[in-house]
Amino acid sequence: MSVKQFFVVLSTALFLSTVQGAAIEKRATCSNGKTVSSAACCAWFPILQDIQENLFNGGQCGAEAHESLRLVFHDAIAISPALEAQGKFGGGGADGSIMVFDTIETNFHPNIGLDEIVRLQKPFVQKHGVTPGDFIAFAGAVGLSNCPGAPQMNFFLGRPAPTKAAPDGLVTEPFHSVDQILARMADAGEFDELETVWLLSAHSVAAANDVDPTRNGLPFDSTPGIFDTQFFVKTQLAGTTFPGSGGNQGEVMSPLAGEMRLQSDFLIARDTRTACEWQSFVNNQSKLTSDFQFIFAALSTLGHDMTTMTDCSDVIPISKPLRGDSARFPAGKSMKDVEPACAETPFPTLATAPGPATSVARVPPPPGA
Ligand code: HEM
Ligand SMILES: *[C@@H]1O[C@H](CO)[C@@H](O)[C@H](O)[C@H]1NC(C)=O
Asked: Which ranges carry the Plant heme peroxidase family profile domain (predicted)?
């Protein structure tokens, strides 16, 4: 079996976290001395350098990195085999249509705020002459690699330019029911309820600017600059008025000062179909990284045949590892504040962060936003 065949079988069956590096035959050496699987990947090293310096402020896991990851999701998830089956255009998935047809797509309600990162990314696409779909996937992977604890991100090359804007109504909203969200994810990418939970790990490095525009930059956990499992702890804490008494569609009150909690995350953390998988991430960094590595590769290639794409994962930097599993209850919180929702397994025992409860710092939006 050739390496290529081996890879095809692996990627269609289960994308093992060991694929990266292990199964890919290195075939080209770039002018910077780095070895990659194909010479076509070499062109992405200068792009890497450019965006690390000029988009991600010297390789930060800040708002630009978070928004670039969110952009991957909102571009990719806009694909619907169900619409196609009705003879309608179902969108092109991870095709960059959200950037090319930004005047249409960033006006869709769930895409609120994404005009900003599209505006920041566009000049790099023009300057480097790559397709918008490939660039969005690349920027999402590089941005997350700037967050300590992130997996080794995969990057596949070969998305043609989009021909049409995606239709409205395909991107999930924080006020959707769990049924609605699971149905949409199943249609878009045959993502099941477990894979939907894996995808939501992205909210470990996230903040909200538009759920409540009067309170922008509110992170979803206490560590928005680190890809850790703290998000899965905090979403399980009680102390909420439900539904959001603040009147913000899709928000439930967070028990932690300075943080935002989405209704959808709150409900998925408590639904019988998803609660055990949600809890399984608490303090399990290696599960977090391996599941997200796999699912990001699937998300960022939606609508494309991965076996025809070029694996350029070698270009993506390796993020700083986190030492051990360090999930904590926030200061002042303990097991008694947990609303356990997994009938099979007790919530893991965690230490409580020391000190008085403090408000988490905002994530400053990009300048000029
Ligand atoms: C499945 C249902 C999902 C819903 C309902 C949802 C909803 C939201 C909402 C409302 C925000 C806040 C936006 C704002 O006000 O600025 C947000 C932020 C974010 N989402 Fe999601 N999301 C979902 C899944 C995902 C997935 C699958 C990813 C990526 C793989 C993702 C990545 C992000 C990131 C990184 C942010 C932070 C953006 C920033 O800090 O500027 N989300 N999401
Ligand atoms: C972490 O998750 C993996 C994969 O599900 C599991 O085998 C392992 O036992 C988990 N570790 C802990 C400490 O729960």
From this structure: 130-316
